[in-house]
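Reviewer comment 2.1 asked that we show a complete input and output for one of the modelled complexes. We chose the magnesium ion case, as it is the one discussed in the main text.
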Amino acid sequence: MAIIRKSRSELEKMRRSGLLVYQILTELSKMVREGITTMDLEVEAERMIRDAGAKSAFKGYYSEAAGAEFPYVLCTSVNEVVVHGMPSAKRQLKSGDIVSIDTGLSLEGYYGDSAVTVPVGEIAQETQHLLDVTRQSLELAIAEARLGNRLFDISRSVEQHVLKNGFTVVREFVGHGIGTRLHEEPQVPNYVDRQQENPKLKEGMVLAIEPMVNQGRPETNVLSDKWTAVATDGKPSAHFEHVVAITAEGPWVLTRP
Ligand code: MG
Ligand code: MG
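Response of the prediction step:
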C-alpha cells in the first residue's frame, strides 16, 4: 500500500483548500431552512468555488460504478440518503429533515473535502441524537489520528462509539487518504476491517475521516440514478467529515480554523 506523505509546505497548501471548504460549508449551513431547495445550496457553492479560483473535486468526477461523471459541486443527502445525493430544484427542505452537505475542491492542485449534516427546523429527538453521536464519533476518531497509532485506532473509535449508542456504521462507503488527488490510499473504514491492512500512522499522512452512521440497519442501496446511496430501511443517516494531517504536534484538522 502506497500512502503518500506530505511535506510541511504541501500541508500548508492543503490547509488553504481545507479552510475554503470550511467557509463554504459554514455559509451553506446558515442557508439551510424550511423552503429552500438543495439546488439553492448547489448554486451558492458553485459561485463560492468559482470566486475563490478553486476547482470542484466533485463536478466531473468519474465513477466506474456509475459509468458517468458526477454533475454537481455538492452532494446533498437528505434523511435516509447516506451519501452522494444530487442537488435538485424539486427537493424543497422541510422542518424535520436533516441534510448532509458534502463538498470537495482543489486549490493549487491540493484537495480539501468535508461534510456536515444540518437539521432543518425542529427535528425528532432520536434524529438529533444521531447527529450528536456521529459528530462525536468523528471527534473521537480525530483524537486517534496521531503518531504511535494505527489506522484501525481511528476506525475502532468510530465503530465503538456508534454501536454503544445503538446506531450502526455504514460499511459500503469509507473515508480515504487525500492530497493531490481527492481519493488516495489508504481507505479509512469506520469499522475495523480485518480484510484490509492496518498501517502505522506516520508524519505527513493526510486522511479524510468521514463517519456515515445509520439510525436503523447498516445496509445501503444505490438508486437507479447510479449515485444516490440510501439506507435500505428508509431510516435517517448522518455524515460528518474532516481532513486531518498526522503531525509531530498531533492531529491537525485542515478543514476548520
Ligand atoms: Mg471524502
Ligand atoms: Mg466528502
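Residues 102, 104, 113, 115, 210, 241 surround magnesium ion (ligand 2) (CB under 6 Å). We note this here for comparison with the apo prediction described in Section 3.2.
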